[in-house]
Specification:
MIP18; three-stranded mixed β-sheet; alpha+beta; Cytosolic iron-sulfur assembly component 2A; chromosome partition; FSCA_dom_sf
Length: about 120
């Protein structure tokens, strides 16, 4: 799982989330919840406590994992506790299927997510 998310690019910087230490191997937890079904929990750390792109980063993590995980899964994505001023609100947003679907219907937002999650050549 960490190999999948490590190459996601930051929406503002030319770096990957791994290079910026937004995601690390330690931020990924996988638990078996049924036969061939897993709960994947990601806890990412924004670069600053008031990062305006934290929701977008969470969305990129979700989209990339939904597309790339080769097994049935439930996905929970959170901001690491105490690392963002509005972490509770953002956690609700990025774990709400309807809000995620609505966000991906926005063409400009979808384009940004695609740029962040597309593998470099």
């Amino acid at each position: 799982v960490s190999d999948i998310i490590r190459t996601i690019r930051d929406p503002e910087k030319p770096n990957t989330l791994e290079e910026l230490e937004v995601v690390t191997e330690n931020c990924v937890e996988v638990q078996e919840i049924g036969e061939d079904e897993y709960l994947v929990i990601i806890r990412f750390t924004p670069t600053v406590p008031h990062c305006s792109l934290a929701t977008l980063i969470g969305l990129c993590l979700r989209i990339k994992l939904q597309r790339c995980l080769p097994f049935r899964h439930k996905l929970e994505i959170y901001i690491s506790e105490g690392t963002h001023s509005t972490e509770e609100d953002i956690n609700k947003q990025i774990n709400d299927k309807e809000r995620v679907a609505a966000a991906m219907e926005n063409p400009s937002l979808r384009e940004i997510v695609e740029q962040c999650v597309t593998e470099p050549d």
